[in-house]
Amino acid sequence: HRKFNILKWKKGDKCVIEIPYIHIPEFQVEIPDSDECEIIIRKNLDKLREKLDRVKEKLHEKLKLIKEYVYI
User: Fold this and answer.
1) Residue 39 in contact with residue 55, Cβ under 8 Å?
2) Dist CA 63 CA 51 (whole Å)
3) Is the pLDDT of residue 20 over 50?
4) Which residues contact 7 (CB under 8 A, 6 or more apart)?
5) How far is CA 46 from CA 11, 18, 25, 66, 68, in A?
6) For residues 13 and 7, is the Cβ–Cβ distance under 8 A?
7) What pLDDT score was predicted for residue 30?
8) Maximum CA extent, the chain
9) Nearest CA to 22 among 48, 3, 50, 47?
10) Which of 1, 33, 56, 71 has its CA 20 to 30 Å from the CA of residue 41?
């Protein structure tokens, strides 16, 4: 969290901002291989399908109730 000065001046119709120095520390990114990604995606997809099935069942039940109410 170093402080730095931003120099700003107009050059023609453009505003130029010059940042003297920014230090970006090194970092490591681990990307899982495609097999791991596929496993994760399939698990999530299975969970989503299960949730969708439950929602469909609830909607179907509510639709039955609505139909019964309307025909009474």
Assistant:
1) no
2) 18
3) yes
4) 17, 18, 20
5) 58, 51, 39, 30, 33
6) no
7) 84
8) 78
9) 3
10) 56
